Structure of Glutamine--fructose-6-phosphate aminotransferase [isomerizing]:
Amino acid sequence: MCGIVAAVSQRNIVPVLVEGLKRLEYRGYDSCGVAVHQEGALRRARSTSRVAELDTLIVEDGVAGFTGIAHTRWATHGAPAVHNAHPHFSPSDANARIALVHNGIIENHEALRAELQAKGYTFVSQTDTEVIAHLVDHHYAGDLFAAVKAAIVRLKGAYAIAVFCRDEPHRVVGARAGSPLILGAGEGENFLASDAMALAGVTNQIVYLEEGDVVDLQIGKFWVEAREGEGFVRATREVRTVYAHSGAAELGPYRHFMQKEIFEQPRAIGDTLEGVTGITPEFFGDEAWKIFRDIDSVLILACGTSYYAGCTAKYWLESIARISTQVEIASEYRYRDSVPNPRTLVVTISQSGETADTIAALKHARSLGMEHTLTICNVATSAMVRECRLAYITRAGVEIGVASTKAFTTQLAGLFLLTLALAQVRGRLTEAQEAEHLRQMRHLPVALQGVLALEPQIMAWAEDFAKKHNALFLGRGKHYPIALEGALKLKEISYIHAEAYPAGELKHGPLALVDANMPVVTVAPHDELLKKLKSNMQEVRARGGELYVFADADSSIESEPGIHVIRMPEHYGALSPILHVVPLQLLAYHTACARGTDVDKPRNLAKSVTVE
Ligand code: G6P
């Protein structure tokens, strides 16, 4: 989703801004732009194409300057078009003096727009952002910091902004509320960015700005103030050394980041479970023992792929730890009347740790008196980790592909560990069981390598899938969420309509869709539900549907006309969902490649959804 990079420096900062945008590309965007202070005026370049094209424009137009702001936009208000791309200027004519970029959504933008139009401001875009630019200009009387503070108290909604002014060439002002923004302190130069990765290689001295902060950036110094009611007070923020991997954004021998990330899963799971030599609640934080003893249920809140990780964990938590578990889509939970239970462990799951709906759902749960909070998150420095009392940091590494893969399997690993820790506290884990689970967890990286070796067989299937318009995915029990995740992967990157059902539900509706043109992917591990699943498969065959089955090594399902079988190398027991999702990731990936879609940056989607 939208990305911000901004700088005050004493060198031409445009290459750094562009490099920062490239590092933020993975978040998803549909247009981009940069603005600088150049020869006493504001200059900008904007594009509805990739950052690489923006770079070409910058070179052609000779855009250069010491002070600048840059942005990748993911359209919310107004189509992806150059006139809607940031930076926005105010006034919107040749006398422009304010340049601004924004991430978030301003909810009262219509009222503000009417008010500013009445004051004589002309709007040239359909964005909510342009309102902020004009508002800052309206309040500007020679001090940008004061103008921004006066403007933001009028805003309702979520924002991270970076602003500069033609008349103060060595100053950038930033502010955040509800959207992430960090400050990077360099040598004689200072930066703002949506995340530390944007500044990798530039500075590792990072300040995580807090909710309501406004920051004044100048050469060699910065000043933070925190919102207090309608006013602001001086605030001190810790400068931390953050090692954001710049090398992680390299593709190596792979065609796409998604493929690279699928193949990184043995390493990612190995790293996530490193040091797990016995089960203890302490993996989740110092207070974990106390909290785990105090709870009688679990409420999981998440979005997208992370939500499906939660759905899978529900099966583990209820069957192994014997603890009642609910899983809710964060954007639904935050707005519905629910019955709070203060003895619930609220678990958020998030790759980015910045998903607006999940953070809001967490805060909502807390506001209902549920104080036992834990997050399974891939970014140790994220808002989610800061907001929760307990945390387990997955070590997937930076995930660039919008479609999540290694983050999902590492989340599952973290959730399995949580299940075992809760089982232990609840007296549901014998030493023998603990030893057996640990053995299986240690085996995961090797088992994953075996599954990845199936890639050539899956590529052959992908050729068939690429010609289809629809697909059904079936699973049962803890593999039903895996079927859901497989369908999500296929639709988000290949744009083929795909749906998932628990196989027993087929006869209650979706069977009407089955004919020779409907491929039916079946996740068929050799477990207690296999017999039932085989009957469901017969229902498909009887209607002429083509089955594509992922079976375990010891399964009795054989290939025959209309039934294609890929056999997984082993039978995996409780951890089977972690293995069975991998061929579905590969199927989606190769189908998308065969259709020639933009695999890493699928249309209309964003990696990190920091707006509601
Ligand atoms: C976006 C991404 C998904 C991700 C979801 C939740 O929709 O495209 O891949 O699953 O957000 O993100 P989170 O960072 O909270 O896991």
